[in-house]
Amino acid sequence: MARDRSLDLAPASIRDHRERARRRIPRQLFDYIDGGAYEESTMRANEADLAAISLRQRVLRDVSSLSLRTTVLGQDLSMPVVLAPVGLAGMFAPRAEVLAARAAESARVAFFESTVSIAGIEEVRAAVGNPFWFQLYVMRDRAYAEDLMARATAAGCPVLVLTVDLAVVGARYRDTRNAMVGEVSALAKARRGLDLVSHPQWIRDVALGGKPHTFGNLEAAVPDARTPADFRAWVDDGFDPSVTWDDLAWVREHWKGKLVLKGVLDPDDARAAADAGVDGIVVSNHGGRQLDDVPSTVRALGPVADAVGDQLEVLVDGGIRSGLDVVKMVSLGAKACLIGRAWAWAVAGGGQAGVEHVLRTIREEMQVAMSLTGAPSIADLGPEVLLSAP
């Protein structure tokens, strides 16, 4: 995609991409990115609890040589940031997963391809020079899940993240109001159609220019799935709610790379993950999109990190909107931060250039925050960098 020059005129804030996305894509898709479960209290807490933490500014420290580099799950990254798996991204911008993967490669950070991406594993792999990471949902059809792991292995993916907090789908009321799920009345269909036709640029660039709109990794499993409603119906029928810790042995049988569990909030579950021998966990409440009124991830991070020590690598997502947020999370024990909505907003509003802008902004904000807290390297980030903790 050609660089969108109007991005150069936008204020240099990640949150600006949210407003840009709101204008550019249909309301139903924007709310799919932007919304959470039930009353969205956990989604709001993810941001608010991070914002309530204060950094400890220090002076007369030698920060002339500053480094954000780190190693996460065996991969050298230019900073402790990973683009999280985002389902349906190819409906926000044409072949959005390809655009995000290229932006991540340019910034030398990791990209997670989602099971429910529009652009499939092979398409994304052909578009970048280095392998990316892959995210897997466990399905009732274990043979198909095994095939996905084989495809990810063939693509050279070094890390598999198994998402474990989607035994059932949380009630996302915005999707219901927008007639993306549930019973759809004639009036709701008309309103949805009006929403679509009021975004001609999206129709031209994505609806027409971004085809095919199938789930690239799931075409054999759900060949007719073309909308979030189709995805929800497939999840209800296809995802396996009977998965337990015992099933990790089956995953290990078919996956020889690094294995990460995403969706851990409780210290007991973190200890169980360590006992099971996984390589890492992601402290996550699915961006507040699953069960409302559970802890924000920044509140869960410290107890989880303390529970596992150095037995495995602890990553985190949820509410991260700036480089300052990354500094806070790393100071509280995270090895790296996954960002999801931030890059989804950015790709919807500005394509690859938008994602590149988000990553550049995070880097610049981290550099300032680390300089003014007297922490010249990632290894120097710890609780002493913070004035308050959650």
What are the key terms here?
single chain; 390 residues; alpha/beta; 15 helices; 10 strands; globular; disordered N terminus
Overview of the structural elements:
There is one protein chain. The N terminus is likely disordered. This protein is α/β, with parallel strands linked by helices. It contains 15 helices and ten strands. Strand 3, helix 4 and strand 4 form a beta-alpha-beta unit.
Task: Give the fraction of residues assigned to helices.
Answer: 40-55%
| CATH superfamily heading | Aldolase class I
Global shape = globular
CATH architecture: Alpha-Beta Barrel
Succession of helices and strands: HHHEEEHEHEHEHHHHHEHEHEHEH
Q: Provide the number of structural domains.
A: 1
Class, according to the CATH hierarchy? Alpha Beta
Spatial strand order of the main sheet? 3-4-5-6-7-8-9-10
Number of strands: 10
In DSSP terms, counting alpha (H) and pi (I) runs of 4 or more, how many helices? 15
Strand content: 5-15%
CATH level 3 topology:
TIM Barrel
- Rg over CA atoms: 20 Å
The secondary structure category is alpha/beta
Mean pLDDT: 91
Q: Sheet with the most strands? A: 8 strands, parallel, barrel
Poorly predicted residue ranges? 1-11
Distance between the termini: 41 Å
Oligomerization status of the protein chains: single chain
